[in-house]
Amino acid sequence: MEPIDTSLPGPAGSLPLSAGSLPGPAGSLPALDDLVARLGRWSAGRGPLYLLLAARLRRLIDEGALPPGALLPPDRRLAAALAVGRTTVVAAYETLRREGALVRRQGSGTRVAAAALTLDAPRVKETSNPLFLHLLEAPDEVILLSCAAPERPPAELAEAYRSLVLPDADLGYHPAGIGALRAAVAARYAARGVPTGPGQILVTTGAQQGLSLLVRLLLAPGDGVLVEAPTYPGALDLFREAAAVPLPVAVGPDGVDVPEAVRVMERHRPALAYVISRFQNPTGAVLPPLAGRRLVEAANALGVPLVDDEVLADLSFDADADADADGGGPALSSYGEVIGVGSLSKVVWGGLRVGWVRGPAPLIARLARLKALQDLGSDVPSQLAAVRLLDGYAPVLEARRRAARAGHDHLRAELARLLPSWSCAPASGGQTLWVRLPHGDGVSFAQLALRHGVAVLPGATTDALGGSLRRLRLHFLTSPEVLTEAVRRLACAWEEYTAGPARAAAPGRSSLRGITV
Question: Are the C-beta atoms of 219 and 239 separated by less than 8 Å?
Answer without folding.
Answer: yes
